[in-house]
Amino acid sequence: MACMKLGSKSEAFLRDGQTWVCTAGLPSDIVIEVGEMSFHLHKFPLLSRSGLLEKLIEDLYSGEDGQSCILQLHDIPGGAKTFELIAKFCYGVKIEVSALNVVSLRCAAEHLQMTEAYGDGNLIKQTEDFLDEVFGNWGDSIRALETCEEVLPHAEEVHVVSRCIDSIAVKACSDPSLFGWPVSNSAHKPEGAELWNGICTESKTRNVIEDWWFEDVSFLSLPLYKRLIVAVESKGMNPEGIAGSLMFYAKRYLPGLSFKENTNHHNSASTSLAPSEADQRVLLEEIVGLLPNKKEVILTNFLLRLLQTAMSLHASPSCRENLEKRIGAQLDHATLDDLLIPNMGYTVETLYDIDCVQRILDHFMSVDQAADEPPSPCIVEEEAEERQVVDGGSLPLTPVTMVAKLVDGYLAEVAPDVNLKLPKFQSLAAVIPEFARPLDDGIYRAIDIYLKAHPWLTDLEREQLCRLMNCQKLSLEACTHAAQNERLPLRVIVQVLFFEQLRLRTSIAGWFYVSNNTENSRGNLAITKNDIQTNLAENEKTMEMRVAELEKECLSMKQEIGKMSKSKSGWNICKKLGFKRSQPKSVDC
């Protein structure tokens, strides 16, 4: 840390309790009170350096020999500690100026009008010269800006705050190696680097990590930090750097966001206890307002944690809406665990905040639809076929497909909640367009879990729920499970069996086609016609067994219905199920 020594005389002051006495030999003729401290001094050394003290002494001095006057300077910047240094400066006593006291000295000198008109090398010029040296060093600039909090109004008047922020902003936007390595406690000298006259001579310096300045500026108060972020943005800082600093700052002061405290900072005394809930709310709203608008510069999981914290702190609706829109714009980068936001409303109906996820999903769809027109189902099916394993890996999925998978997983997680109403479940699932799901296994699993947790649903409600999935897009494993699922409506089971048989016949037809082409080319094919016919017979036998089981269930249901009253309404129910009197064992598909 840079320092400047002024004065040449030895110590000439003694402190007795709350009193400072000059031991120059002559009796003091003026007493200056600053706060609770009293300084017994002599008027001539003071008025020869300060225009304000000269005026006050002339106005208050009685002119009678032996009688001292009393001046009160309670409003002097920096208080008694700073005035002690100023008094020593006026007497020519040795003092040391550093980055920790230069701001208060500069403000006090301005207040006391210690200009060059009252002696060459007066305190205003001395402190200004030293501030130029302070602004050339990163660590000293940070320390000086932190001390501005103590004398903020006066520091603003002499433009120390703006100059200090500008100095820090320029350095934050520059390569730290240009200032000599390291520039702060967070920066590290690269291996093999040498410094010659303050310049890094390494021929191949490593890429400088942009987060080297995050920790140092995180100890600033919110108003000063906010001004610094605006300054670095105006200096050309990239959005990634600004976003990284904002995330670091938020993690330090918001308990809801994880952060490991570093106790080795240059000014550990500035680390205070966790701010109050009201202060946290203000800080969070300010941080959200400063976030860059560029997409994906902020981690999606961090935005979701910010949103949860905003809900717990009851942040403003505009703040929460801002976060929801940001999350929606990059929802394809979210994970299921981050999306499980606990319900923090006053009327807690469901375990998780379904409405919040609905709004986020709606915003994602609006952004996605604005970016690209939805492709036709045929194109999607072709792309899904092309998205096979290539060179040991699969091609990347589209954002809407990734979100569809995420939503299906989310629905499966919230489905066991008995308080989750059917319309809300349907509304969330229906937002995803049909073309976005290459397979409907995920939505089928969510529907099955919901049916299991809500056994009181009517047949009509079950059918409405099952319309969310397309039986043609179920995998073989899902079809096998659905065909034996007693929770599904009868009509859905029949559809599953029908499409499974249709798919089987299509596959077998393809096998025959391959077999014929292979025979024409006299190739060696392991699967023969006899093998195909055998497989066909086995699959048809399996299908017949499933249909027989289904017919037994239908017969059992009709027997139960026959025991009911022979009313017209009862017969209408049978007709709706597709039963016929003349053929009791048939199933109308």
What do you see in this structure?
By secondary structure, the chain is of the alpha+beta class. Helix 11 runs antiparallel to helix 12. The longest helix is centred in the last third of the chain and has 34 residues. The C terminus is likely disordered.
Question: Which secondary structure elements does this structure contain, and how are they paired or packed?
Answer:
Layout: E1 3-6, E2 13-16, E3 19-22, E4 30-34, E5 37-41, H1 43-47, H2 51-60, E6 69-72, H3 79-91, E7 95-98, H4 102-111, H5 123-134, H6 138-147, H7 152-157, H8 160-172, E8 195-196, E9 199-200, H9 214-217, H10 222-234, H11 239-253, H12 277-290, H13 300-312, H14 317-329, H15 336-339, H16 354-371, H17 377-386, E10 389-390, E11 393-394, H18 399-414, H19 422-430, H20 441-453, H21 459-466, H22 476-483, H23 490-520, H24 529-562, H25 568-577
Parallel strand pairs: 3-5, 4-6
Antiparallel strand pairs: 1-7, 2-3, 4-5, 8-9, 10-11
Helix pairs in contact: 3-4, 4-5, 6-8, 8-10, 10-12, 11-12, 13-14, 14-16, 18-20, 22-23, 23-24
Pfam family, one: NPH3
InterPro entries: BTB/POZ_dom (IPR000210), NPH3/RPT2-like (IPR043454), NPH3_dom (IPR027356), SKP1/BTB/POZ_sf (IPR011333)
Coiled coil: 533-567
**pLDDT < 50 stretches:** 181-208, 259-272, 378-395, 521-529, 567-589
Order of strands in the sheet with most strands: 2-3-5-4-6
In this structure, how is the largest beta sheet organized? 5 strands, mixed
Proportion of β residues? 5-15%
Total number of strands: 11
Distance between the termini: 86 Å
Radius of gyration: 39 Å
Shape: rod-shaped
Structural class by sheet pairing and helices: alpha+beta
Helix fraction bin: 40-55%
Kindly state the mean pLDDT as a whole number?
78
Number of helices: 25
